[in-house]
Amino acid sequence: xxxGQDPAIVxxxxxxxxxxxxxxxxxxxTPNAGNIGExxxxxxxxxxxxxxxINTVGPGYHSVNGxxxxxxxxxxxxxxxxxxxxxxxxxxxxxxVGEEIPIIGMGGMRTIRDIQEYAKAGANIxxxxxxxxxxxxxxxxNYFKALIEDINNxxxxxxxSRFLQEVxxxxxxxxVENIINPNCDxxxxxxxxxxxxGPGQFVFAWIPGIGEKPFSIMDDNPLTLGIxxxxxxxxxxxxxxxxDSFYVRGPYGQSTDIPExxxxxxxxxxxxxxxxxLHAKELSKRANITSLLAAKDSDHxxxxxxxEKYGEVKVATxxxxxxxxxxxxxxxxxxxxxxxxxxxxxxxxxxxxxVLPLELKVSTPDKIYSSVDYMTxxxxxxxxxxxxxxxxxxxxxxxFISS
Length: 403
Ligand SMILES: Cc1cc2nc3c(=O)[nH]c(=O)nc-3n(C[C@H](O)[C@H](O)[C@H](O)COP(=O)(O)OP(=O)(O)OC[C@H]3O[C@@H](n4cnc5c(N)ncnc54)[C@H](O)[C@@H]3O)c2cc1C
Ligand SMILES: Cc1cc2nc3c(=O)[nH]c(=O)nc-3n(C[C@H](O)[C@H](O)[C@H](O)COP(=O)(O)O)c2cc1C
Ligand code: FES
Known about the structure:
Shape: elongated
Distance between the termini: 42 Å
Oligomer: single chain
Helix content: 25-40%
Strand order of the largest sheet: 12-11-15-9-10-14-13
Bound molecules: flavin-adenine dinucleotide, flavin mononucleotide, FE2/S2 (inorganic) cluster
Structural class: alpha/beta
Largest sheet: 7 strands, antiparallel
CATH architecture of the largest domain: 3-Layer(aba) Sandwich
Strand content: 25-35%
């Protein structure tokens, strides 16, 4: 962003890149330059095949109750609010570089109307970023198909709009009402608020000045999180006392469902126990539930009484302090597993890898769902950091993903 405001530096960098590749080079420009036409011209003179405009605007300062939301305190703005700046920049660039140079216009585009405005400003190719928030793969497919139809219909239709998703990015302040297991590094925090969520969904918990991290919605009424201490954030949230506050945003992810009368086995290991409790509570209304729960010792198995309300519970501990001594795999038993059983696995990847072969022996991949903690940053589908081995964005398609 800083280098992109000086025509001489842009020329030098573009030239070096162009000389280093046989591919077509597009220079992507920051709208922060007051002289974006001149910057674009210098990129083209250095050999850029085309221009992309614009990158994010700002930085801006986004705060909640006076607290900066970004750890960096400031950050670039994207989305519909920046359309007027994008249009202004594309217009200036087109005037500066002439008609022949391709321009990929972007910045807040959502619908055929936006595309038409960018086209009139001088763009020939259209880039869409932030508007894709919250879209599943199926939504993305439908959205782009509809948008292309809208383009082919010269804007007489606007079918793509109905695939745009509303995603709640607001932070809500919640108060710690009760802490179960206060002396353990796996605590269950009950808040003073409820949340409308289904089994499998998660929230981001945010502590101003520390950061935000994703957590399964262990229970919805009141919103309850089960938190295992691992690093700075989980240590901070677990050090909160009764009456202290933190913030949440969400719920995100898909909630899971099963046909009436199904047989369901829930497999929770470590803090993964927090990820399957809401399944027990909700799915037990129309299914037979067995919960297989494993932890290193009995202290790390809170909430057992609550699990028992919704079906049979089998327990394994590594040190044998409760239930069977050993791992969760030792709890698999044909008496409660049949060929149509649904499995929901939540826990460390090693646990999921160990139980999958056992489950695949008796059930089919479409009935086996697993949630593994992939690095989840935006939580709304646009950064890609949570992609699994098959490229599925687990924050959107999951967190429980079928095998
Ligand atoms: C959908 C989802 C639901 C989760 N639910 C729970 C839960 O109910 N209870 C629970 O204790 N933990 C849960 N986690 C994991 C939890 O988010 C991380 O343990 C936590 O972020 C660690 O943060 P930290 O600052 O304490 O540790 P750090 O020192 O930052 O990290 C410790 C380890 O945690 C993992 N981690 C860190 N940041 C993230 C991130 N943004 N996304 C995923 N993993 C991360 C990495 O493996 C890292 O090595 C969940 C993760 C995801 C993706
Ligand atoms: C989460 C996120 C990550 C981004 N990462 C990059 C990046 O790595 N490189 C880049 O040139 N632009 C990046 N951008 C900017 C976008 O590519 C785009 O130029 C900008 O967001 C405006 O388009 P939009 O309003 O359609 O999102 C990012 C934007 C967002 C929201
Ligand atoms: S796409 Fe950003 S965390 Fe999933």
